Amino acid sequence: MADRRTYRTFGLLDIGTSKTVAAVIVAEHGPSLSAPSLRLAGLGLQRSRGVKAGVLTDLDEAESVVRAVLAQAERAAGVSVGNYTVSVAAGRLASAHCTARIDVETGRVTHDDLQRLMAAGESYAERDGRTLLHLNRLGYELDGVGGVRDPIGFSARRLSAGLHAVTADEAPLRNLLVLIDRCYAECDGLVASPYASALAVTTEEERQFGVTCIDFGAGTTTIALFADGLFAGVEAIPVGGQHLTYDIARALQTPLAEAERIKTLYGTLLNAQSDEHESISYPVAGEEDEGSFETTKARLTAIIRPRVQQLLGLVRERLALNAAGRYAGDKVVLTGGASQLLGLSEFVANEFGRPVRLGRPSDLAGLNASLAGPQLATLSGLAVLAARGSNELSTPYARKVLKQGYLGRVGTWLKRAF
């Protein structure tokens, strides 16, 4: 019997502080494939404008960039997609953990019971003006007995579940939808970017044993925690690699573009005796004589190190406050564009006293080798989630609101406001 294979094309959009990326992916499904085979058909990449720390600050500038990357990706793929799965890092992403309980009316657990359980969790998570982005189950109890993975068909009078919700402020999400509408595109759903990044760079075994994935982006640093193979926690800190660039520019009085170049080429957290004598030439802002000023690698490290220590201190605080932190094991995986700073893995390992590795997403066919690195981890994770079409995470905000037309969404927002 022939191996019948089907193909599905979908779009991805990741709007970051430093770059905006769109991709058109072709997923191949077949009986002999344990997971969809993914191929990059088209890629659009431009420097972001109108975005700060993942939040839209200028719709017109952001729109021109998003329109350009969507057109670039679809032109390269030779198809018009229209619908995109979009990553979210804005809105002060945070975790909420709760236990939902219901009575099993029929005495035997059904899918309707699970839906009622999830509805109870949604109501709890959306308190205090927060918007529910993801909701997933961590485990069940039947009449007080835990350890149940799938309760369907079990006999019980009382069903309870530990739930993990990812919530965000609604205003940044609304503005993200407005931006996508203005680009004449549709949103298939929103995915928390730390979850997408973690899926791309951690292994199934690591997630099963417990792992913490830290994504060092340009404007934000996000954290995803896994325990027993389940997504159990998320955090977002509005500090990233761009702040290192600002520190270098301020200390050396050099333009931002030059500070970024210096950080990329010479930035390191490792100490070497030769760094005291290795000089770096750079221009000073406002001076006509370019290249006449010098510093050393040792001084550059002294500029970078305090900011990294401050950021890791914030990460440590967030992990201590997150309920999933105590279950996520010791392993730490780093990813994101700023994670490529030389010596960062060793520095984090020393600061945390935990095993650390640099995570790279698995190869995506059709992606240029120069781009197949931590800087595109979020996009790779979006591809995995969109291709899988899994229901392991419910996305109530996306399903209830995003699929409406623009006018319908405006009506929804007005009802919520008044």
Automatic annotation (TrEMBL):
Keyword Membrane set for record: yes
Keywords: Cell cycle, Cell division, Cell membrane, Membrane
SUPFAM superfamilies: Actin-like ATPase domain
Source superkingdom: Bacteria
Topology within the bilayer: Peripheral membrane protein
The UniProt record lists the keyword Zinc: no
InterPro entries to which the protein is assigned, alphabetical: ATPase_NBD (IPR043129), Cell_div_FtsA (IPR020823), FtsA/MreB (IPR050696), SHS2_FtsA (IPR003494)
Annotated localization: Cell membrane
Gene3D superfamilies, alphabetized: 3.30.1490.110, 3.30.420.40
One cellular component term from this protein's GO annotations in UniProt: cell division site
CDD domains xrefs: ASKHA_NBD_FtsA (cd24048)
GO terms classed as biological process: FtsZ-dependent cytokinesis
SHS2 domain residues: 10-201
Coiled coil spans: none
PANTHER family linked to this entry: CELL DIVISION PROTEIN FTSA, CELL DIVISION PROTEIN FTSA-RELATED
NCBIfam families: ftsA (TIGR01174)
Similarity remark: Belongs to the FtsA/MreB family.
Subunit structure: Self-interacts. Interacts with FtsZ.
Functional note: Cell division protein that is involved in the assembly of the Z ring. May serve as a membrane anchor for the Z ring.
Listed name of the protein: Cell division protein FtsA
Species this protein is from: Hyphomicrobium denitrificans 1NES1
Lineage, broadest ranks: Bacteria, Pseudomonadati, Pseudomonadota, Alphaproteobacteria, Hyphomicrobiales
